[in-house]
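Q&A log
Question type: sequence-to-structure
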Amino acid sequence: MADNPQHMPRQLPAALDRGWRRCGAVLRTFVAATAPLLTAGILQAAHSPVHGQSRIHALSLTALEQRLTTLDHELSQLASLSLLSGVGAVGYRSQIHTSPTDPESIQIDLGKKVTIDEIVLVPTLWRDTMTGFRADGFPREFRVIAGTAGDPTGTVVASYGSSNRLLPRIAPLIISCPGTIASWVRVETAVMSPRAWDGMYILQLAEILVFSGGENVALRRPVEISSPDSTGGLGWDRRFVVDGFVPYLMDAAEGAQSLAFLSKTDIGEQPTITLDLGASLPLDRIHYHVTDLSDTVPQSISDGFGVPRRFVLEGANQADFSDAVHLVEYQMESTYDVGPIIMRRFPVKTCRHVRLIAVEPFINTLETDQGTQFGAAEIELFSNGVNVAIGIPVQADFPENAPVRSLSSLTDGRNLYGKILPLRDWLNQLARRHDLETERPVITRELDIRHLRQKANLNRLGWLAVILAAGIVSIILIERIRRMRQIARIRERLAADLHDELGANLHTIGLLSDLAADAGDSPQEMATLYRRIRSETERSGIAVRHCSDMLSAKGLYTDLLADMQRASNRIMAKLEHEISIVGEEYLKALRPRTRADLFLFYKECLVNISRHSGATKYTTELRAAANGIQMEICDNGRGLEIWEEDGIPASLKRRAKLLGAKVTVRNPSRGGTCIQLSLKTRKWGFRK
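Response status: OK
Response body:
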């Protein structure tokens, strides 16, 4: 019957449904228990002490990858940190200190009140044999103060400590101070760093630039220092901290390469170049970009190749310079007076025509054809912070070395590396590059960690998938076994129910038939017995119709106490009997299935007594409590000699098994047989 879905007992679909729900609950528990393993690596909160690490750690993997792409794109558009080689001014170096907290300061007199918006500190660089180039003597903790002539104390515009993690670096440090009015700027140290070669504490800076817009107002201004000069000249001097020379070459990320102009030799005693700006403009600055020499390492020739040892810059509004005015003069007294960009400021003069006169021209003694020579990568003339010489035709009173070294290269806005940037923009790009290159390894390290975690999690997921699949298969197999056991249990219960209910009914009908045969002389008794036979027949019919689930049959097992009384009267009609029941409130709380099983057990006991014991009297004691139920049926019959081997009929053992109870049989000393059932109370035994 169970193999045919149309005849499957009602308990089976419900059992299957419960089984699948239990299977789902097990799977949910399994996933909930293993999910933390998948996310433990991602949710770790360890941070390395790197600037910006907390912000980077908070980004998702996709955001990190996008950030790395954005960062690399931005880096590709920034100027490179190409370092200067050769001989030249290094910057300022203080006296030696044994304690890092000894005070040191550098103060620049701007000459007048100006509105400044940015200060740039360029570190002195040291070639470390282990780590490469690094800042040397750059202060660890310091503050930058700006003030006016009437305010010697000034205002702190920036303060840096060890938490700012400025070092290591080789790039300039940009200090923003928009709208600050000052006539002097001072750098004061709180903690100095040791110099590389002997570990002594000093303050070193290659350059200090103070910008008002695009103008470096600190260029070649007077410098005051807190410690006496002790460098003995060479490349270290206070004036070198504002000479405009930085330890970098302008290597922009944009623009085509342009070879510097270099004339032929023997071009005269005082060669001259002239620029026509096309209109009279107020000029106040010149940037002379020297001939690029860093295409070989080491340099094959010295710095300042082709640069006049002395030149004079004049301006005029007339083409013949009849109204010429002196703008600025440059004198190269030593190799420390030349750098990649020679910058000179001068009082504002309005002029259209500008000429540069090499009063003391460079003399080339290296070539076969020796003599005077002129060379430059670019000449920039500034009006209101803008280079107005770019693209302007250049004329010379000597023949140019065309087409390789054309005069047009002097105003094309490009050098050997590409576009010539405004000074402030260039230094800001170098500082920005430092920030991004400091951030990039943090991002790549975090990505590597995330990818390793992701790989580990994928491996873990793979194993968990295998375990989960094995678990699902195991659960399916276990559930299948459970279903098979349930089917077997349902069959067993069905057989037991039919045996106990129908068997008892048939036995009762037989007894009533015998009684009817003996009562032939009493019509009234015959009629009563026939009605009882008819009642048992109807009850049996109900049980047969509802054989798959007798609990659904109306009139069956609705009242345990009444059913027990009726069963005693029907089955044991001629026997004397006593029934004692304690704890009726617990019996009424029994679930229908438990109540039915108890009744069928009791009924089967009565049938066995009636058939086999030969008893004339029996007693029933039923005691119910919160912790269990005890039922004992005793008779005064022959005892166990004709019963089964262990004294317990198979039908009683089967019913006790379905109840989950324990059954025992004993022979009391007074004679007869006692059958005892012990049922421990369980949650499923009572209604909720």
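Response note: The longest strand covers residues 341-360.
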